[in-house]
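Appendix B, example 12.
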Amino acid sequence: MGAAKKGVKDGAYGDAEPGVDREFLSLERELSLLMRRARASSGEMARQVHPDLEPAAYGLLVCLDDSGPQRATDLAAYIGVGKATMSRQLRAMEELGLVSREPDPADGRAWLIRLTPDGRARFRTVRAARRARYVRQLQGWDRSEVAELARLLGQLNASAES
């Protein structure tokens, strides 16, 4: 194997830009790969929930299942999209029977979005299968390593929000 190919495979960056930390180059490479795989996985899981569900909507299902009914503006902020995009996604999810709207008891002018019973059941089935896949992929890891990975990813996500 040539030196250039070996260096990339081993995580060494012989041709790295001067002054660039190799640890951050490695982090960037691994996160890029993880995000590419996560996008593909989200699309697959969205189709498992419903064949017509947009991949980006899977994250909304996660938020609604984890946190319960939410205002559309809060969901838009969580996902990082505008109100128009959120309205379109929620309308599509409502047409698929996955979510419903109800008046917000705290503010009669606002609406809360919640998972329908069918939406919750479909989502939880797919989420359980995803979790089982993680268990299989990480079966050789100690639980403490899995916990540390989750902690570090949580720390990364928190720093991205600030």
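Confidence is low (pLDDT under 50) at residues 1-11. The radius of gyration is 20 Å.
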